[in-house]
Amino acid sequence: MKAFPETFLWGGAIAANQVEGAWQEGGKGISTSDVQPHGVFGEVAERQPGDFGIKDVAIDFYHRYPEDISLFAEMGFSCLRVSIAWTRIFPQGDEQEPNEAGLAYYDSLFDELAKHNITPMVTLSHYEMPWGLVKHYGGWGNRELIAFFERYARSVFTRFKNKVKLWLTFNEINMSLHAPLTGVGLPENSSKAEIYQAIHHQLVASALAVKACHEIIPDARIGNMLLGGLMYPLTCKPDDVLKTLQENRSWLFFGDVQCRGEYPGYMLRYFRDNGIEVDITESDRQALKTTIDFISFSYYMTGCVTADEELNEKARGNILSMVPNPHLASSEWGWQIDPVGLRILLNELWDRYQKPLFIVENGLGAKDKLEADGTVHDDYRISYLNDHLVQVGEAIDDGVHVLGYTCWGPIDLVSASKAELSKRYGFIYVDRDDQGNGTLARARKKSFHWYKEVIATNGGSL
Ligand code: BGP
């Protein structure tokens, strides 16, 4: 296929709590992720001495990052998306001063990337926040969190201003609707009104972080991060189409606020119709006016929407309760595979916002088998990624401004939804199972060589 733009960034994306391990090293505090041993939808289990969780070591990236980064460099990465664990910088969340050991760790990580000419893209909060802020302040439901987050953001912008020029605020900010503890630090049974108030505080904090980034690092760009949950109507019945519009708006709302600087009318109506009162002050309104520089999103699947309640009932409990699309195949985890949907979504987002787009997650979670020859023959992963990247190329041809592509989990890591290691995304295999057995040794899969060629030819080999 035609080569991608010269400036296109190629790479992968990881998150601190899914790779680092070392959960009690360097003065790190306990995060919400540390007390969710069964993943982002799982219940809270407060840590007792001696408890063991798969994330405690994860893939030991905290200690092994030089080796892993050199493997990324071997594939030709020009970008690596990482996150900073907020609890390494502010262990409880409400300290006055940042923890030097945490800052020093990320200093060395960014230096290592610079050695290999890999541009870091840094998420401020990827599915974790200090557990102290949940226990003692009630999570994002409490307005005080805005100031704590701003202090954290300003500290890392100031420290890393010469090393990091691409930033993201909250990972998949719209996930708070489905996993409140993971997103906004609220109990899973919180009311819609409580969740939207907490989301509002987070949106204000996100805008204040954008403002701080612009002040402290004028040559940086900072984006939001959405779970790109594109929905199709199951049929062409007008009721299905209307409901699809509303479902898509339930997540696009976050992008609307972050790109346009105010709440859209349809959301205010939703609040009115559902008796939801959100406390939005004049200074919140002013803060929201600072908008992001680019939009980033994850893309794994699409789903369908129907007004037929019986079909909806059957779909409850599926991932995000989506009605399956009869025309698509699914991954082993029931995620429906839809490369063309990525082209549609890129076009939709470009049409809606006219801001540059960055695909910061995409990939196939699968059970891999390490062969006797020390590799994994993951043709299924190659074909998934190839098909999606072809559609990215088509969207670029459609005139969409795409900055880059960082696929999810270029090295096997702990899954967010189930906290298991057997759901693998990587080009690099990690010898560790769900019980924590294994040497943690790394091995190149077949897809490693495939991706290397894609990057070397700037998409020409797709
Ligand atoms: C996204 C998250 C990631 C990641 C990915 C894959 O929602 O931002 O953290 O894990 O999904 O999901 P899973 O790990 O559940 O397969």
Automatic annotation (TrEMBL):
<dbReference type="Pfam" id="PF00232">
    <property type="entry name" value="Glyco_hydro_1"/>
</dbReference>
<dbReference type="GO" id="GO:0005829">
    <property type="term" value="C:cytosol"/>
</dbReference>
<comment type="similarity">
    <text>Belongs to the glycosyl hydrolase 1 family.</text>
</comment>
<dbReference type="GO" id="GO:0008706">
    <property type="term" value="F:6-phospho-beta-glucosidase activity"/>
</dbReference>
<dbReference type="InterPro" id="IPR017853">
    <property type="entry name" value="GH"/>
</dbReference>
<feature type="active site" description="Nucleophile">
    <location>
        <position position="361"/>
    </location>
</feature>
<dbReference type="GO" id="GO:0016052">
    <property type="term" value="P:carbohydrate catabolic process"/>
</dbReference>
<keyword id="KW-0378">Hydrolase</keyword>
<dbReference type="InterPro" id="IPR001360">
    <property type="entry name" value="Glyco_hydro_1"/>
</dbReference>
<dbReference type="InterPro" id="IPR018120">
    <property type="entry name" value="Glyco_hydro_1_AS"/>
</dbReference>
<keyword id="KW-0326">Glycosidase</keyword>
<dbReference type="InterPro" id="IPR033132">
    <property type="entry name" value="GH_1_N_CS"/>
</dbReference>
<protein>
    <submittedName>
        <fullName>6-phospho-beta-glucosidase</fullName>
        <ecNumber>3.2.1.86</ecNumber>
    </submittedName>
</protein>
